[in-house]
Amino acid sequence: MRITKRKKKIIFTTVGIVVTALMLFPVYWMFITSIKPLNEIYVDPPLFFPSDPTIQPYIDIFTSKNSMLHYMKNSFIIGSGSMLLTLALAAPAAYGLARKKLIGVVILMGILIATQMFPSIIMATPLYIIFLNIGLTDSFTGLIIANTTNLLPFAIILLRPFFLGLPKELEEAALMDGCNKFMSFWKVILPLTRTGLITVGTFTFLMAWNELLFALTLSNDNSMRPVTVGIYSYMGEYAAEWNNLMAASFVSSLPIIFAFIFLQKYIVNGLTTGTTKG
Amino acid sequence: MNLKTDASINVQTKPKVKNKKFKKKIDLFTDHLFIVPSLLFFLIFLFYPIVYNILISFKEMDVSNFMDGGTWAGFVNYKAILTEPLLYKSLLNSAIFTLSCIIVEFILGFSLALLFIQKFPGVNFMRGMILVVWMLPSVVVGTLYKWIMAGDSGVLNFLLEKMGIISEGILWVSSEKFAMFSVIVANIWHGTPFYMIILLGGLSTLPRELFEAARIDGANAWKSFLTITLPLMKPTIFVLIMLGLINSFKVFDLIYVMTSGGPLDATTVIPYYAYELSFLQFNFGQGGAVSGIMLFLVIILAIVYLREMRKEEIG
């Protein structure tokens, strides 16, 4: 019995390693291509380990006329702006919607779930025309608002279970102590839902970082454009220089890789609570 | 701000018994205040644009007159779109893309979940690494797969030739025959980890005793999977399939980066078609009409989803 259990463990571990390696091979290929000099890219058979690794592709994309740094700065502004606006709107809304006696909770949650399903292109056309009329195209504000339309329903749905989980007595105690509702929300409730706020904050930042369609349609000016549009324009610029393209792809994936390493626990928990209780 | 101070003054001066009832009313009122900012945001930036989009679809609106709001045209755009073969082609493409992705991602995701629900050394690390794939930007995934599946020096062709599956390199992304297959493969790789993590969440809530009991009764692994795991996982599976349906239907970034809808419209899906009409041909009216059709389809899906969700909650 003990031996078979041990054997099972060894089999599972082996299969696990093989599956993970297969799944991650494309990521490996992205990285390995990004450190190859141009003459090693088109050799046949392809090199699975570069014989002459170089950081030239990274130097190229950071010193190019349209520097990667510029695109990353824009993505960072759009990402953090969208995250802050989404959290500022979503946290009180999720709290309000967690109070069962609120009129129309079921209908409101239904509408939220439905709006989450709309493809962005449905929003992109009208937002483009509306923003053009009020001067919000080619502005970070416009991009942040557009992203928030995408993120807000998602954030409220994901945050609500965290507020539902709080004991009501806590808030009552705060109210007894002379806090009003807004103070107790700010001083008592919000700190207790920190986990939820971190989870949703991370998600919204990364989703805004990954966004392409709004960035493409609502900003014609390169000075506002984020990494996603940047990579696409590199495709034209570098054409067949796949090492540079892979370097740009790798650099723009770094925030995601970091977020996962540091916040994996939050993200996985948040995701499963959100979808099963949504 | 004013309201807040008024309320507290009132509460303090009222006698105790009345006070309670009054306070409850105030409470209920302030609860509603919390959702007002979001509600306003939705009305202005979500609801209004969607209504505006429907209006556009009934207007003649292109690059010459869109700043003046276009001119009313009745059903002209819908008539033009509904007689356009490309609409049906893109509907069909969307259906092929969505169905293939859901089926394969579900099977792969479930297999991964069944593997990674086991306890063995390094399992958490492996789960985490696989999840990284899911959070990569679609633009990166598209660029990466364009390179991996490149016809001349793509590593996929090399590996397949080496294994003897193909005799000469295939132009995956740039041929009409294989372009759809290519974007589906890229999307499956990108989306499978999401299925895995949701199914893992569902699997971890199943009571272990049931499986023990089944084993004692002599059921093998396959049988207990069919008779216990699947039925108990039904709610999770339903949610997942709906989310998968929506996410695959929404696909835009991957198509834009890998194929731009081509070659010969082989990968033009509905969202890309709407983009093409509005932002490449600047025919906002017809683009709006395609969006209108999409909106209609999504709302039907949403209603089905919500009804089923409510049944789950009651039952």
Automatic annotation (TrEMBL), chain A:
TM region(s), chain numbering: 12-32, 76-98, 105-131, 143-164, 185-209, 245-263
Localization of this protein: Cell membrane
ABC transmembrane type-1 domain sequence ranges: 72-263
InterPro entries per the UniProt record, alphabetical: MetI-like, MetI-like_sf
Similarity comment: Belongs to the binding-protein-dependent transport system permease family.
Entry membrane topology: Multi-pass membrane protein
DNA-binding as UniProt keyword: no
UniProt entry tagged with the keyword Transmembrane helix: yes
Highest taxon in the source lineage: Bacteria
The name this protein goes by in its record: Multiple sugar transport system permease protein
Keywords for the protein's UniProt record, in alphabetical order: Cell membrane, Membrane, Sugar transport, Transmembrane, Transmembrane helix, Transport
UniProtKB/TrEMBL annotation, chain B:
Superkingdom classification of source: Bacteria
Keywords on record: Cell membrane, Membrane, Sugar transport, Transmembrane, Transmembrane helix, Transport
ABC transmembrane type-1 domain: residues covered: 91-305
Listed InterPro entries: MetI-like, MetI-like_sf
Topology with respect to the bilayer: Multi-pass membrane protein
Localization: Cell membrane
TM segment ranges: 28-51, 95-117, 129-148, 180-204, 224-247, 287-306
Family: Belongs to the binding-protein-dependent transport system permease family.
Name under which the protein is recorded: Multiple sugar transport system permease protein
